[in-house]
Amino acid sequence: MELAKAQDWVYHVLSDNEWLRLKPAPSVNSICLMKSALDIAFMDDGEQVMPLPVKVRGRRDELNALLQTCGWNLSVKDDDQFLMSFIPPVSVP
């Protein structure tokens, strides 16, 4: 997220109610996460155990390209939501 912030992206951690009421604001590059989903998607040691639902506003393709440089992937869940997952590097034998 720090790399995204450095590229003029903002992110918000929202309550369940805030998540449900969130309206599109495409002119602002933003990533919105639901606090309850964040708590479930990661172990205490930081390991991601399931994809994290996110709402992305703004230049989605640019954000995905940025995330991929760090091993993350953004995939479409539906018209309004995406799933953000860490893809572990493939080790070459």
Task: Provide a compact summary of the structure.
With 93 residues, the protein is α+β, with helices and mostly antiparallel strands. It has helices at 2-6, 16-21, 35-41, 60-68, and strands spanning 10-14, 30-34, 52-57, 72-76, 82-86. The relative contact order is 0.18.
List descriptors.
alpha+beta; 5-stranded mixed sheet; 5 strands; globular
Structure commentary:
- The chain has one domain.
- The chain is 29% helix and 28% strand.
- It has 4 helices and 5 strands; from the N terminus they run αβαβαβαββ.
- A 5-stranded mixed sheet has the order 1-2-3-5-4.
- Helix 2 links the parallel strand 1 (10-14) and strand 2 (30-34).
Oligomer class: single chain
Helical percent range?
Answer: 25-40%
Please summarize the sheet with the most strands: 5 strands, mixed
Query: What is the mean pLDDT?
Result: 80
How large a portion of the residues is in β-strands, by DSSP E? Answer: 25-35%
Q: Span between N and C termini? A: 31 Å
What is the overall number of helices? 4
The total strand number stands at: 5
Structural class: alpha+beta
Form type: globular
What's the topology here?
Layout: H1 2-6, E1 10-14, H2 16-21, E2 30-34, H3 35-41, E3 52-57, H4 60-68, E4 72-76, E5 82-86
Parallel strand pairs: 1-2
Antiparallel strand pairs: 2-3, 3-5, 4-5
